[in-house]
Amino acid sequence: NKNFKVVVIGGGPGGLSVSSTVSKLLGKNQVAVIEPSSTHYYQPLWTYVGGGLKDFSESSKPMGSLMPKDAEWIQDKVTKLDPDNNQVQLSNGETIGYDYLVVAAGIQINWDQVKGLKEALGKDGVTSNYSSESVQKTYPFIQDFKGGNAVFTFPNTPLKCPGAPTKITFLAEEAFRLQGVRDKTNVIYNTSLGKIFGVDHYGKVLQQLADERGIKVNFQTELLEIDSDNKEATFRNNATKESHKQPYDFLHVAPPQGPPTFIKESKLADAAGWVDVSKDTLRHNKYSNVFSLGDCSSLPTSKTAAAITGESGVLKHNLIADLKSKKAEQAVYDGYTSCPLIVGREQLILAEFSGYTGKPLETFPVDQRRITSIGQFLNKEIIPSIYWTALLDGNWTGPSGVRNALKFLRPANLS
Ligand code: FAD
Q1: 414 found inside a domain
Q2: What's the rounded Cα separation, in Å, for the pair 182 and 177?
Q3: pLDDT at position 283
Q4: Percentage with pLDDT > 70 across the chain
Q5: 303 within ligand 1 shell (Cβ under 6 A)
Q6: What is the rounded CA–CA span in Å between residue 176 and residue 306?
Q7: Closest by alpha carbon to 150, among 251, 254, 255?
Q8: 368-383 as b/e, with b when 16 or more CB fall inside 10 Å?
Q9: In Å, how far are 16, 395, 415 from 33, measured between CA atoms?
Q10: Which residues fall within 8 angstroms of residue 160, CB to CB, at 6 or more apart?
Q11: If you measure from the C-alpha of residue 44 to the centroid of ligand 1, how many angstroms do you get, rounded to a whole number?
Q12: Domain termination residue (choose one: 300, 323, 346)
């Protein structure tokens, strides 16, 4: 049995941002990162890949090239959590002990929850930007589309990047215009939610744009089943409980998602299955030597890499204070998250807000509800390099410093 001062589960942005800093601090053989995958994906790029604006190869790097050099990479997956004994079990049967545990295993995609989805995915116009394989089919299917019904879905579960299902809708609608097939096309967005976007400040602008572009938005409408032989999808209206069949020629699915099974079945889980942490300190509510961040945590903000920037700063502050046995004041997370709402090839609304209050937390001293091409440039070209070179290395904890520096330029009429 091996023991480490700090064990981090997951080599996504949550796990790497924390393990980089902590392993630099503690030196060799003190920090382990448990991560089964040999590839790390920058998933936010997948909207651009699906929209034909970025090459898939730009979204991945070998996991080994990103692992902090002072951390030990254990290439396996955790199958069991045993917080009473400060250890985790791996799929090879080994157990790994820890003084401190950081859980950052991401969200689980439950493809099986939609009947027929697994069989249909990647064939005959059915696609999803939510997997590394199917995202590569989205743009070819858009290009092949000759008109008819283009249908887009939003699941009846929590999901990562809740803006992603609308972004691909807008990008596809624009592509159909550019390809000259828009007048033969119904663009239909079926969402399980009661509005197009959770935060009204931006949602109102987005709904108006959908109306202008002739995107038909159906609320409380959940995808239940895909019959790929007949190119028909079954949806249920959860308000009226009525189901209907929708013929499709193109179908983009945002699949049902939930907490990873090994977390859900453990003592670390809250009632819904997420790692049960304080929304302020990111420390576990029962096991004080356990922390969590990112998509698998119970933090009630929207699940994005942008949120992880702020979360990682808070988590590291509090964990490092423990490691140094300092009675430091606990850092507190404000729920910062961002959803860069891509609405065209050169158009973006840079939504930034607190998922806790629903209030805007904008970096730049302008009204960020405006559609800009600069926002698109920032999100498409600049933020990816901040991610690869600064967030994963533990050196970027979000834009709050920039926001504070620019505050005095902010017109008084903006919140
Ligand atoms: P992940 O990045 O999912 O990493 C989790 C890691 O844990 C994985 O490497 C996995 O292999 C590993 N793991 C899983 N199970 C185990 C186990 N049992 N044992 C050990 N390791 C395990 N965010 C934005 O900020 N902006 C955007 O514009 C944006 N757009 C998106 C568009 C799409 C299509 C998608 C899919 C996501 C988007 N996101 C966006 C969301 C963002 O990618 C996620 O929020 C972010 O990756 C979450 O990071 P994480 O570290 O919590 O989890």
Answers
A1: no
A2: 5
A3: 98
A4: 100
A5: yes
A6: 30
A7: 251
A8: bbebbeebbebbbeeb
A9: 8, 18, 41
A10: 43, 106, 107, 257, 295, 303, 304
A11: 9
A12: 323
Q: Which amino acid is at 312?
A: S
Q: Are residues 23 and 145 in the same domain?
A: no
Please confirm, yes or no, whether 161 is among the known catalytic residues.
yes
Instruction: Please choose from 110, 160, 348 the residue to mutate so as to test ligand 1's pocket, defined by most ligand atoms within 8 A of CB.
Output: 160
| Full domain range(s) for residue 302 | 2-108+258-323
**CA 213 to CA 251: how far, in whole Å?**
19
Per the annotation, the verdict on 296 as an active-site residue is no
Residue 331 domain-assigned? Answer: no
165 within some domain: yes
Q: What is the DSSP letter of 269?
A: B
**Which tens digit of pLDDT belongs to each residue from 184-205?**
999 999 999 999 999 999 999 9
User: 415 pLDDT exceeds 70?
Assistant: no
Mean of pLDDT over the chain: 97
- Co-location of 48 and 31 in the same domain: yes
Which of 116, 119, 176, 132 lies closest to 151, judged by CA? Answer: 176
In-domain check, residue 148? yes
Q: d(Cα 195, Cα 173) in Å, to the nearest integer?
A: 19
Measure 296 CA to ligand 1 centroid, in angstroms.
9
The verdict on ipTM greater than 0.95 is yes
Q: Is 117 in the pocket of ligand 1 (CB under 6 A)?
A: no
**pLDDT tens column, 111-146:** 999 999 999 999 999 999 999 999 999 999 999 999
Same domain for 30 and 130, yes or no, is no
Could you report the per-residue pLDDT of 380-403, keeping only the tens digit for each? 999 999 999 999 999 999 999 999
Helix (H) or strand (E) holding 352: strand 347-354
- For residues 93 and 177, state if they share a domain: no
Q: Is 106 in the pocket of ligand 1 (CB under 6 A)?
A: yes
User: Of 231, 225, 216, which Cα lies nearest the Cα of 125?
Assistant: 231
Given the CA of residue 295, which atom of ligand 1 is nearest to it? 52
CA of 312 to the centre of ligand 1 (A): 14
Whether ligand 1 lies within 6 angstroms of the CB of 187 is answered as: no
pLDDT digits (tens, 9 = 90+) for 221-269: 999 999 999 999 999 999 999 999 999 999 999 999 999 999 999 999 9
- Which tokens in the block code for residue 334? 């404000």
Cβ pair 338, 378 in contact under 8 A? no
Question: How remote is the CA of residue 184 from the centroid of ligand 1, in Å?
Answer: 37
